[in-house]
């Protein structure tokens, strides 16, 4: 419920900004271009927050430092997601970054849906044994809460099939064998 409240607050702020900007009409072309750039930046910032807020809420539960957005990681995530756009396959990039991938049927999936799916794996992680429940995945969750991961960058594409692929990359990477996430 708290996550939904933060999303609602973010949406309200974005809409308020858009309304206030729409009232500042100008015939000057430079002002018009500036306004367009501001609107694009606000939309981009809103998209970033849709990844950061739910990640950081989950990290806050473990008293971990919040992730910071990395344009470099977002660019890499976008590059990899676009490479997978033809087949929408959940194939990892095998880069030096940590990586979570999400696939959803159809195009209406949001960043928070991917983060929520990864967070649900919490139930399958045994911190004492540092293992996942047999035949269950928990490595998306452990990457999200890896204490040494401090930066994140994500991207979303709609694949040729019409399905959605979301990629998030983390730096430094987590899921180091023999180490616990926190």
TrEMBL record:
Residues 1-24 form the signal peptide. One of its GO terms (cellular component) is extracellular space. Residues 46-178 form the SCP domain. The keyword Lipid metabolism does not apply. PROSITE patterns: CRISP_2. Keywords: Pathogenesis-related protein, Plant defense, Signal. Pfam families: CAP. Probably involved in the defense reaction of plants against pathogens. This is Pathogenesis-related protein 1. It comes from Gossypium hirsutum.
